[in-house]
Amino acid sequence: MKYYSTNKQEFGVSLCDAVVRGLASDKGLFMPDEIKKLPAEFFDNIEHLSLQEMAFAVANAFFGEDIHADDLKSIVYDTLNFEIPLINVEKNIYTLELFHGPTLAFKDVGARFMSRLLGYFVKKQGLSDVNVLVATSGDTGSAVANGFLGVDGISVYVLYPKGKVSAIQECQFTTLGKNITAIEVDGTFDDCQRLVKTAFLDEDINKKKLLTSANSINVARFLPQSFYYFYAYAQLKKLNKHKNVVMCVPSGNFGNITAGIFAKKMGLPIRRFVAANNSNDVFLKYLNTGEYVPFPSVSTIANAMDVGDPSNFARILDLYKNNHSVICQEIDGFAYSDNAIKSAILECFAETKYLLDPHGACGYLALKETLKDDENGVFLETAHPIKFKDTVELVIGKRLEVPEKIQAFMKGKKQTVLMSKEFSDFKTYLMNL
Ligand SMILES: *Cc1c(COP(=O)(O)O)cnc(C)c1O
Fold first, then answer.
1. Strands 154-161, 180-185: pairing kind
2. How confident is the model at residue 165 (pLDDT cuts 50, 70, 90)?
3. Is 76 close to ligand 1, i.e. is its CB under 6 Å away?
4. Strands laid side by side in the 245-250 sheet
5. Nearest CA to ligand 1 atom 11
6. Helices (H) and strands (E) in the chain, counts
7. Does the C-beta of 382 come closer than 6 Å to ligand 1?
8. What's the mean pLDDT when you consider all of the chain?
9. Is 359 touching ligand 1 by the criterion CB < 6 Å?
10. Hey, where are the domains in the chain?
11. What would the pLDDT profile of 35-45 be if each residue is shown by its tens digit?
12. Is the distance from the beta carbon of residue 248 to the nearest atom of ligand 1 less than 6 Å?
């Protein structure tokens, strides 16, 4: 399968190239030339498949031409070795808990899949050491670091703002060792992001080192998220609740929901999508006005969705050929303030005993607002509430127990490299690796 750029200046790119480079040379995002429909028998039988079997069939449609079936199978099986439960919250509202991976974040699946696919190409093509740079305000760093831990031929550098990441988040990427280096930057998250972006553009570094990023612009990170949608549908089918399915996705960079749209294009019967946002409502404004006007992000308690210019918006436009009215038919949008998010956590817990995290709370609210009686709605729970412990505890007035998985990280020894926010220092560091 070949890949083209959403900016239409690059075509015929191999999967290996698309994964190693991440972004096209015209700054567009890579898209597969074709989205293959899965056969009717697959959907007839879907509720009898395990998560791994189902994901392998889906992955095969995207990557089967470029990776030997046995290798692809082990990448998929190794990525998805944990549970993804579907839970009935109330009436026709369900949630798919995507946070049972190693760092309790839904980004675990994409990060693990990408690390193994990149590792496969590094080995097969005999690439020299690949360096993954990632700037994080918390969640992405831990998922990427744990996803890539121990993968041969790849070194990961996680840049994070000193003193501005919660203890629970910090321990998940500073205690790992091996091929993972945590860089503690004396600055803000924006400084970290600037250092990474400047490094990608720096000629001297790029002549000497192979650099890549691991965010959801990378096809290997966002596409595997389509597994979730097939799995959600299959679980609903088991319950005979698979008519008129609405999938509601707490969205930031819109990678996850874009993977859902791919699933629908592969034949998955989803009636419509709902994008749930916090106060960063650039997508909702686009739906309402037809104009896309990015703005600097505002901080909220659902901070993994604090994005003012979602990178995957370009993929959504491409999938629907820029047709605003078709996009409005397929995707609904809602946005919620911090106060609305807090009330939702409190009310949902009081009425149903289900504890939402601030991101999932946006999804829950949006379904409550839009779901019709003849529809079955699933919102994706993208983070374990413990990751937003302080907020959630304050809202429900109860202490939360820290799960064992996280406690294990907290026992590890913190190891970091201290760095100023000056690019020249970071450059010297990279050149001397
Ligand atoms: C990254 C993230 C999101 C947003 O996902 P996108 O694919 O960027 O839209 C939502 N919730 C949580 C907890 C996240 O970490």
1. parallel
2. confident
3. no
4. 86-90, 93-97, 376-381, 245-250, 272-277, 331-335
5. 382
6. 20, 13
7. yes
8. 95
9. yes
10. 83-104+222-396
11. 999 999 999 99
12. no
Per-residue pLDDT for 197 more than 90?
A: no
CA distance 433 to 305: 33
Q: How far is the CA of 253 from the centre of ligand 1 (A)?
A: 7
Q: How far is the CA of 250 from the centre of ligand 1 (A)?
A: 7
Contacts of 371 (CB under 8 A, 6+ apart): 92, 93, 246, 377
Residue 304 CB–ligand 1 contact under 6 Å? yes
Nearest to 278 by CA among 384, 360, 181, 180: 360
107 catalytically annotated: yes
Strand, coil or helix: 29? strand
How would residue 215 be classed by pLDDT, with cut points 50, 70 and 90? Answer: confident
CA of 218 to the centre of ligand 1 (A): 15
Q: Please check the confidence at residue 92 and state whether its pLDDT lies above 80.
A: yes
CA distance 306 to 301: 9
pTM of the shown model: 0.95
- The class level of CATH for 83-104+222-396 reads alpha beta
Phi and psi at residue 378, in whole multiples of 5°?
-125, 125
Q: Is the CB of 312 under 6 A from ligand 1?
A: no
Mutate which of 221, 222, 251 for ligand 1? The one with the most ligand atoms within 8 Å of its CB, which is 251
Q: Which residues of 337-358 are buried (b: 16+ CB within 10 A; e: fewer)?
A: ebeebbebbbebbeebebbbbb
Of 70, 86, 220, 74, residue with least CA distance to 154: 220
Nearest-CA residue for atom 15 of ligand 1: 304
How do residues 327-367 score in pLDDT, each as one tens digit? 999 999 999 999 999 999 999 999 999 999 999 999 999 99
pLDDT band at residue 138 using 50, 70 and 90 as cut-offs: confident
pLDDT at 406 over 90: no
Instruction: Identify whether the C-beta of residue 220 lies closer than 8 Å to the C-beta of residue 212.
Output: no
